[in-house]
Amino acid sequence: MKPRCPSFWITLGILYFNIGQNNDSLDALTRAVELNAHIWEPWYNLGVLYDSCNGQHSDAADAFYKCLQRKPELSNVRARLEAQQSYAEGLNEELLGGSLIHEMVNSPLDGKHGW
């Protein structure tokens, strides 16, 4: 079964993330991006996954940047991205830990996400 709805894959990615199956979460979220790279939710969730589970701060920053390109008003993502940039420049390691985003976001099943 390979549904063509990004929201399905986003939800599946969140479920996998919540039970600690990070590779499966990555696969599901990547599938959502492949189906519709223009929505912000899978990029947000990829940032959370890379950041909190895998410690891949550079990949997390890339995903959060793409998220902000699609939804610039997300202040928590902007703060996280700024913290990651400070960390990468060796300026503030405490800021990195203090701005961690712990939860993923779901996507509405409204037909606007590539049904």
Tell me what you see in this structure.
The structure is a single chain. With 115 residues, the chain is an all-alpha fold. Helices cover 63% and strands 0% of the residues. Helix 1 packs parallel to helix 3, helix 3 packs antiparallel against helix 4 and helix 4 runs antiparallel to helix 5. The protein is globular. It starts with 5 loop residues before the first helix and ends in a 17-residue tail after the last helix. The mean pLDDT is 84.
Topology:
Layout: H1 6-18, H2 22-35, H3 41-52, H4 57-70, H5 75-88, H6 93-98
Helix pairs in contact: 1-2, 1-3, 2-3, 3-4, 4-5
Short description:
This protein has one domain: Tetratricopeptide repeat domain (Serine Threonine Protein Phosphatase 5, Tetratricopeptide repeat, Alpha Horseshoe). Helix content is 63%, strand content 0%. It is globular, with a radius of gyration of 14 Å.
